[in-house]
Amino acid sequence: MRPLIAGNWKMHGRLADVQGFAQAVRAAARHTDLLICPPFTLIDRFATALAGSGIAVGGQDCHPAPEGAFTGDVSAPMLAEAGASYVILGHSERRYCHGETNARVAGKAEAAMFAGLTPIVCIGETEAQRDAGEAEHVVRQQLMHSLPEGFSGIIAYEPVWAIGTGRTPTEADVAAMHAAIRAVLAEKLGEPGKALKILYGGSVKPGNAASLLALPEVDGALVGGASLKAEDLLAIAAAAPRG
Ligand code: 13P
């Protein structure tokens, strides 16, 4: 599987950042797929700046409905029209700051697929859940209930306690969780579940990318802070094994 290195810019990035970043990532040789998920305001600009480069642009959320009286929301067809081909869904910052439930995430994933976007559904346990020995159970429940029937997309395993903290699980813990995720995907989705990409996210940096990306069933990375610098994102991509 060709690895996917995805940058989640979260609520960072201004118009002035787009050209330089796009030029830097366009210019670099790469053996992975690359995806930039900027704030909604920059999707159209990034899509233009990256046109023809093979580097994809994605959103960070979408509403389950195609349109309607939903102040502040953006729909999947709107993202597609702006030039996005992916959308991150159910990120822990949405689950915990915006009260998003598994069912809500499943509705969004369905809308994304219908609009022709590739959903990236995020799952992951809190530190308290890991300490209580519940990590695999929590992740299993999230997978069983956040993925709609016939789900086709990407899973990102992001332990909540590893996001933005500089801490990562051990390699053994990442490998064990990705194997568990693969088993649930196969159980829930059958044969197609065996071919979906599973990304690791949570404090991925140039310094730890090679060891994380070499683990079995780790098909790429979802990168937060380090994706804001083109140089770091490219270093992470360069550290990925040739798939
Ligand atoms: P950091 O890479 O900043 O830990 O963020 C991870 C993340 O939340 C990506 O979606």
Structure overview:
This protein has 10 helices and 8 strands. With 243 residues, it is α/β, with parallel strands linked by helices. It has a single domain (4-239), classed as Alpha-Beta Barrel (TIM Barrel), CATH 3.20.20.70. The protein has an 8-stranded parallel β-barrel, surrounded by 7 helices. The mean pLDDT is 97. The protein binds 1,3-dihydroxyacetonephosphate (13P).
Mind sketching the topology for me?
Blueprint: E1 4-8, H1 15-27, E2 33-37, H2 40-49, E3 56-59, H3 76-82, E4 86-89, H4 92-97, H5 102-114, E5 118-123, H6 127-131, H7 135-146, E6 154-157, H8 171-189, E7 197-201, H9 206-213, E8 220-223, H10 230-239
Parallel strand pairs: 1-2, 1-8, 2-3, 3-4, 4-5, 5-6, 6-7, 7-8
Helix pairs in contact: 1-2, 1-10, 5-7, 7-8, 9-10
Bound molecules: 1,3-dihydroxyacetonephosphate (13P).
1,3-dihydroxyacetonephosphate binds next to strand 8.
What are its keywords?
243 residues, alpha/beta, TIM Barrel, 8-stranded parallel barrel, 10 helices, 8 strands, 42% helix, 15% strand, globular, binds 1,3-dihydroxyacetonephosphate
Q: Helix/strand-derived class? A: alpha/beta
- Overall radius of gyration: 17 Å
| Portion of residues within helices | 40-55%
| Low-confidence segments | none
Classified by CATH, the class is Alpha Beta
* DSSP strand tally: 8
The proportion of strand residues reads 15-25%
Shape: globular
Strand order within the widest beta sheet: 1-2-3-4-5-6-7-8
- How far apart the termini lie comes to 5 Å
Instruction: Name the CATH homologous superfamily.
Output: Aldolase class I
* CATH topology title: TIM Barrel
**Hetero ligands:** 1,3-dihydroxyacetonephosphate
Number of domains: 1
How many helices? The count is 10
Question: What is the helix/strand order?
Answer: EHEHEHEHHEHHEHEHEH
CATH architecture: Alpha-Beta Barrel
Mean pLDDT: 97
Largest sheet: 8 strands, parallel, barrel
